[in-house]
Amino acid sequence: MTDVTIQATDGGSFTGYLAEPPSGQGPGIVVIQEIFGVNEQIRDYCDFLAGQGYFALCPDLFWRQEPGVQLTDRTEAEWQKAFKLYQGFNEVKGVDDLIATMELLRDHPGVTGKVGAVGFCLGGKLAYLMATRSDSDATVAYYGVGIDRHLDECAAITRPLLMHIAGKDSFVPPEAQAQIKDTLGGNSLVAIYDYPDQQHAFARTEGQHWDPDAAQAAEERTLAFFREHLF
Question: Which residues, if any, are the signal sequence (predicted)?
Fold first, then answer.
């Protein structure tokens, strides 16, 4: 497990946390952070994916504001800082950084076959945008916030996309969820799983709304999806 340097398309560079599979070979997955930066939890998730046979690379998307952000969801001060970083985040440049990350991962020694992406919260929205704007071979979006504002891009989806939607998500109101399902539900490339009793971030381990059973169900579906489309 190591940090790598990624060159931004508009100049400068940023870092990413890379976890490698024990075999030294396998597909790649770009892991897209929440609003808490590349923290211990997201690094642990990269390590978990590496244990499943993937090269997992999570880039620091807040580097233009403050490199190396590592926050938790345990204090009000950290929440306030996370929201401030989110408000100052340039979404277009963030997607560009993710595409640069994906290109680096495709060329990394040992990466064989395909490269996909998975994201949570802010990362869930960015995962959807990777499905519409990049060559990600398979993409998973966990409870993405604001996807309904980009449904006009849905025609650009040409590779498989898996979406996990929390039915009681306080950041994604029912009408937004309905728009997403109505617009994408008929697309054969898109699989949508609904968790009707779950709140936002139900898969964030030990988080306020963590639900072990729902998190495990989503994880199993995600792993099966990646096994089908990346190996």
Answer: none
- Confidence (pLDDT) at 1: 81
Active-site residue, from 73, 137, 164, 200: 200
The full set of domain ranges for the chain reads: 2-230
Hey, CA dihedral for 60, 62, 65, 67, is it positive or negative? negative
Asked if residue 194 lies in contact with residue 167, where contact means CB atoms within 8 angstroms, the answer is yes
Separation CA 98–CA 102 (nearest Å)? 6
Annotated catalytic, 169? yes
What is d(CA 196, CA 198) in angstroms, rounded to the nearest whole number? 6
What are 108-121's pLDDT values in tens digits? Answer: 999 998 999 999 99
Q: What is the pLDDT of residue 113?
A: 85
Q: Looking at domain 2-230, does it have CATH number 3.40.50.1370? A: no
C-alpha torsion angle, residues 76, 81, 84, 86 (rounded to 10) = -100
Token match 């966990």: residue?
142
Catalytic residue among 73, 97, 137, 169: 169
pTM, two decimal places: 0.98
Compute the average pLDDT of residues 19-37.
Answer: 98
Look at strands 55-59 and 13-19 and give their pairing.
antiparallel
